Amino acid sequence: MWKAYAFVMLAIILFSGNFIAGKVATEEIAPFTLAWFRTLIALLVLLVFARQEFKYARPLMLKNWKALYGMALTGVVLFPALVYTSLNYTTTINASIVEALTPSVAMVLSFLFLRERFSGLQVMGVVLSFSGVLYIITQGSLEVLLELGFNIGDLIMLTAVISWAFYSLLVNNHGSKFPMYGSLLFMLAMGNGTLLVLSAILEWIPGGFDINWSAKVVWSVLYTGVFPAVIALLAWNQAVAMIGPSKASVFLNLIPVVTAIMAFFFLGEAMTSSQLLGGALVLGGVYMTTRKQRQRKGEKAIP
């Protein structure tokens, strides 16, 4: 049993490290370009062991390419690009706490688009978690709220969360139709092509492609493509297979905690009182929101 918890903690640590590596890399690399490098590296790594599965399922995936492209657009393209964009303007701690809001956002979207019903406790959890995020992005200041003086990075991160929530809905509806690694390879290929076009239009043509490839930037880029995008996903899937999605999904709430510890040691970021209180509200709300959902199905992993 200890191996299962070792796998799940490895995944959580690697997922959390994505914020640190992203913060370092975006000092030199534009966000969509970084997302493109990430998907390119992950694609090359995944080719090693997913090629046969991809070939076997290619006719099925080509037939259902629209659903797969929807997942690629929301989960492979927009989510990482928006996360890395947000890190240009906000702290890694803020970004990780806002990301913890994902289950609550997914629940709201499920109600709006799928007409799912939820308990009063889950609704209270959504309200509590959104209140926590609002407290963080206003830094506990009523003046910031009244003047709408929000940190643009926090709002961009919230947009990333919405994108991932849409991805989760698409996975719930279509994911079981396809083999896991073959479909991931297919989505990475489509996502990488899309990011190539977006990076050229939004970043390379206006600002050029001049990158200072220092050692820390190189290692940060390699980290984003290998560890959170591939190794963490494999570790997460192994943990879910051993202990089930219900137990494994509880550990996702540790991502803001682990990120805060990493940010302190690697970036010198210290948690503020508004982050502590807001983070507690978010995690408490997420626990209430997912309490009954975990009895039916587990949360999706964060890439």
From TrEMBL:
Domain EamA: 3-137, 152-290
Coiled-coil regions listed: none
Membrane topology according to the record: Multi-pass membrane protein
InterPro entries: AA-Vitamin_Transporters (IPR050638), EamA_dom (IPR000620), EmrE-like (IPR037185)
First-listed, main subcellular location of the protein, grouped into a coarse class: membrane
Pfam families given in the database record: EamA
Subcellular location: Cell membrane
Keywords: Cell membrane, Membrane, Transmembrane, Transmembrane helix
GO cellular component, one term: plasma membrane
Transmembrane segments: 36-54, 66-87, 93-114, 121-138, 150-171, 183-205, 217-236, 248-267, 273-290
Origin superkingdom: Bacteria
Family: Belongs to the EamA transporter family.
Name listed for the protein in its UniProt record: Permease of the drug/metabolite transporter (DMT) superfamily
The organism's taxonomic lineage, starting at the top: Bacteria, Bacillati, Bacillota, Bacilli, Bacillales
